[in-house]
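stuck on this one:
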Amino acid sequence: MKLWSNLLFISLLACGTAHAEKPTEASVRELLVLTNSQQILKSTEDQMEAVMKNMMKAALKDQSISAEQQKIMDKFRDKVMDIHRAEVTWEKLEPIFVEIYSNSLSQEDVDGISAFYRSPAGRSYVSKMPVVMQQSMNAMQKVITPMMEKMFEAAKKMGEELRELNKNK
């Protein structure tokens, strides 16, 4: 009887291990292609630039600035975007995504998700994601802009309090 229970235990263990088989790199890369991950990453650049413009506008609130100040701010924004374009590349991120997916999903998961993305519903979902993401970013800006204004106001108040504290020393 003990032999049968040991064999049953080993069989269950083997099934559990096979069930949680780590996905192949090729299957994960295929999933990234099916989900248009590279194109989605590229589309975030424009969205990030728009967010930066709104954040800078929120930081200024209703203050008027000179053409020279605007030029400096534009130069800063362009520099930040250049850094983003250089650092947030598909060549740098793809291996990271492959590792994350490989460590988080089983081969069965990747196969099932890939099957979905090959289906008409999956292809439709992928084709509509850029619009969904753009609308999400626009909606988030409506939340983030007032939040940033409050944060800038809090930072301004902190600066005033620190200056007052230094004056009294």
Remarks:
- The longest helix spans residues 120-167.
- Residues 12 and 18 are 10 Å apart (CA to CA).
- The two ends are 85 Å apart (CA to CA).
- The chain is about 90% helix and 0% strand.
